[in-house]
Structure formats: structure tokens, C-alpha cells
Amino acid sequence: MAAERRAGYGLSPPGAPLADAADAAPTGGRFFGALAWLALLLGPALAWLIVFGLTPDAQCGNWSLHCTGKAIMYSAASWLFGSLLAIVALFRGERRGVAVPALVLNLIPLLGLLAAYMFLAERA
Prior knowledge:
The protein is built from 6 helices and no strands. It is mostly helical and 124 residues long. The mean pLDDT is 83.
């Protein structure tokens, strides 16, 4: 009798397997989430190292505007790639404790660049 009442409300009787898999914690790995963190942490450092380390001094000089803009765009590409990796990690059911912070922290600088672009476009 009590089991029938519970069944009417979507509750399963004691000892029954979970009917809703969405409530279960994700058991996937951390591969794409870890790649998103690497894109967040190492991407901008590698971008600046590549632009200013591998470009001849005659071309970039002392922090020229052209090379700085190129490094910023490479960093933005890294953050965008990290965001996409974190979204893939979420869709694959990987651990949210790894993927969600990586997604948020990859989106923050992208939103900052978008806000700076909009501010400069308004002034021009």
C-alpha cells in the first residue's frame, strides 16, 4: 500500500535501482576538463612566449603594438579553445568540479576582451 502511494509520486520503493540517471554523479574522466585547464593556464604564456620569443627584435622591438595585439589575440584563441574543451567535458559527463571552473575562468577574460572592444568601438 505504501509502495503504491510512493509510486504515484515518482518515488521508488526501498532497494529499487535509481530510475533517473540524471541524479547520479558523473563518473566520467577528466581528460577534456584537464585540457581546458591547460588552455587556461599555459595558452596565454605560450602565446606571449611564441610572439615575443620567436619574433626577431627588428620586427617587434620593445613591446610594439602590433606584436602585443598578436599575443592578445593568440591568448584569446587559447581561452576560446579552453571554453570549448570545457563545454565538451560537460557534455561528455566528466566531473563538474573540473569542467565548470575551467569554463568560467576561460570565459571571464573573453568577456573582458569583448567589453574592451565594445568600449573602444564606442569611442571611435
